[in-house]
């Protein structure tokens, strides 16, 4: 399978670090309101443009907010840890599946964490915020890049927007509950599968593979 992983909230336990950068950005620009943890937990589309609107940054300054956020992010001591067991799970999954990351973060940030955990070779490609298109378009680009079928592709994310983007791309959606959004919020989007902990990904992906094989056998 082609597995499209979100990064923040799925691989990286980064919510508090991102909140810290968001607060520094808002304070530097002195506009909008101070962001809170609840803003991250409830925002539907976790991109920096949408987050700027969430904290009431004027529309004319949305791009400035995003650019400033990225500048502070790249200059910060942005040290985060992966969620427990997730690196080992990526290592196992990479033996039989192709893995890409689709994130609103920066490639450099992603690879810093992967390199610290000897996992950079597990990921075949990273699509970040500066690549054109939304996550649906990036999923489609990954499918084209690796000549994969939609039926054999999954989007794995922790926010309702990840599920919506995956559905729009026509791929299997797997919501994970250890990230930004709660089980209740995620379940309302009717993802194909919900993983309550990283280890559950093995069972879910095996199930999808089995279903695909059964479908092929009936054709």
Entry summary:
The protein is α/β, with parallel strands linked by helices and 219 residues long. The chain is built from 10 helices and 8 strands.
Q: How would you characterize the overall build of this protein?
A:
With 219 residues, the chain is α/β, with parallel strands linked by helices. The protein folds into two domains: 2-13 and 83-218, Rossmann fold (3-Layer(aba) Sandwich); 15-75, no CATH class. Helices cover 48% and strands 13% of the residues. The protein contains ten helices and eight strands. Strands 5-4-1-6-7-8 form a six-stranded parallel beta sheet, with helices on both faces. It has a two-stranded antiparallel ribbon with strand order 2-3. β7 (172-176), α9 (183-187) and β8 (193-195) form a beta-alpha-beta unit. α7 (135-145) packs across α8. The longest helix has 19 residues, at 200-218. It is globular and about 55 Å long. The relative contact order is 0.16.
List keywords for this structure.
two-stranded antiparallel ribbon; single chain; 6-stranded parallel beta sheet; 2 domains; 219 residues; 13% strand; globular; 10 helices
């Amino acid at each position: 399978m082609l597995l499209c992983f979100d990064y923040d909230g799925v691989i990286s336990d980064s919510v508090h670090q991102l909140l810290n950068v968001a607060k520094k950005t808002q304070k530097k620009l002195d506009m909008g309101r101070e962001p809170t943890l609840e803003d991250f937990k409830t925002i539907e589309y976790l991109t920096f443009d949408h987050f700027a609107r969430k904290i009431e940054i004027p529309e004319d300054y949305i791009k400035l907010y995003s650019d400033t956020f990225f500048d502070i992010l790249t200059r910060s001591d942005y040290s985060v840890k992966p969620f427990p067991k997730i690196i080992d799970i990526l290592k196992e999954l990479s033996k039989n599946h192709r893995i890409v990351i689709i994130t609103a973060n920066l490639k450099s940030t992603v690879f810093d964490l992967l390199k610290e955990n000897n996992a950079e070779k597990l990921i075949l490609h990273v699509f970040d915020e500066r690549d054109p298109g939304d996550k649906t378009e990036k999923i489609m680009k990954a499918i084209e890049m690796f000549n994969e079928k939609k039926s054999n592709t999954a989007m794995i994310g922790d926010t309702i927007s990840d599920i919506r983007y995956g559905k729009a791309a026509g791929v299997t959606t797997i919501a994970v509950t250890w990230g930004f959004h709660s089980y209740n919020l995620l379940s309302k989007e009717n993802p194909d599968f919900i993983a309550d902990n990283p280890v559950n990904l093995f069972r879910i992906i095996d199930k999808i593979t089995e279903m695909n094989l059964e479908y092929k056998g009936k054709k």
